[in-house]
Amino acid sequence: MIQVDLSHLCVLFISFFFPLLNQEFDIILVAKLRFRSAMAIDGWDFLDWLGADTSARIFTHLDDPADLVRSASVSRSWNKFITSNGFVKNLCIRLCPEASNFVSNSSDDHSIYSNLIKNLVSDNENQSCISKCIAASSTDRFPDERIENTLESEEVVRGRLSYWSSKGEKDSDKSETLIYGLVSDLCIVDEIKIRPWLALHYDNQVYSAKFVRFKLGGLKFSDSWPNERNHFISDDNLVWTYTSPEFPMQQENELQSFKLPRPVLCIGGVVQIELIGRAQRCYIDNLFYVCVTHVQVIGRPVSGLALTINISEASSGEFVNQYSISEAQ
To answer: How far from chain centre, in Å, is Cα 276?
Structure first.
């Protein structure tokens, strides 16, 4: 088994080894290196032969988590080298920059970040991750047009129209926000789906935004959740660890998918949808509105890990979140 692993890893090493070292070794020496590795001679360690610095340079350029897992299982010395140098953590942060927000957990880093990488590359089926509505920046007719209606997949529920509506504005560039809580404090989000509302019973127009943008993060203080009567939350109580690019929204009454550039780790279990601009004016009051029928946040909760949030005071006197993750009990 080890012989197979060494042969496989040798190919990976050579693919990076030769160009990285700027031809410090000639092609004959590299060929000999490949041959000796495949032989898996007892008592001969590939890392010792290359040296710690060169080996570290090569491991740093591996971008497939499976390669690091195979490497760590070759021998105790390889496992110790990979663990002590934090290669798994560094790869995890390259794949998922949000992971750089976690406070180091020293000796547990290797297993924790290995678990996180497994979640990032998992082929588990995605699901809708919204568990509750937190806040809307405005609501036209509360409670009939409240944000909770966007959790319904149908436009008519129990004989009533189901949608959220902003207040009317004279300015068509005015933005609105919808904030949702997810099923877990740690979720991997791949895409967000939004269906604008078609005012079929009024003017037969679609009240969409012009663009959308998404922010992922969490609440700064645990007591800042809004109540049912006052759906408002201050921006000072929100901490975002990821902000997406802007996506154009079509003025169409269909579930529109907005795929994030990569799977994103949501730290804190909160997603904000920023609806930028207003495409439609209402003929009744001549004001611009944006209305949404249904929202989905597609992804999966992180399994096997638990998030801890501590509030600390920075040198500036401002209170900030400190995030740490640990193996779930």
So the answer is: 22
Tell me how far apart the alpha carbons of residues 22 and 54 are, in angstroms, rounded to a whole number. Answer: 12
Alpha-carbon span 171 to 176, nearest angstrom: 12
Percent of residues in the chain assigned helix, strand, coil, to nearest 5:
30, 30, 35
The pLDDT score that the predictor gives to residue 3 is 43
pLDDT cut 70: percent of the chain above it: 78
By CB atoms closer than 10 A (0-12, 13-18, 19+), residue 190 is middle
* Ramachandran region, residue 19 (left: φ > 0; alpha: ψ -120 to 50; beta: rest): alpha
What is the distance between the alpha carbons of residues 307 and 102, in angstroms, rounded to a whole number?
Answer: 9
Give me the pLDDT at residue 295, please: 98
Of the candidate ranges 39-53, 125-139, 171-185, 295-309, the one whose mean pLDDT is the lowest: 39-53
Half-sphere exposure of 109 (CA within 13 A, CB side): 21
pLDDT score of 111 more than 90: no
Residue 123 has a pLDDT of: 83
Give the pairing of strands 291-301 and 288-289: unpaired
Strands 130-136 and 176-182, sheet pairing: antiparallel
Q: Name which of 67-76, 234-243, 301-310 the model is least confident about.
A: 67-76
What pTM was estimated for this model as a whole? 0.81
**Nearby residues of 59 by Cβ (< 8 Å), 6 or more positions away:** 68, 71, 82, 85, 87
**Residue that the structure tokens 């993060």 belong to:** 217
Q: Measuring CA to CA, how many Å separate 31 from each of 17, 28, 58, 196, 290? A: 12, 5, 17, 61, 65
Which amino acid would we find at residue 21? L
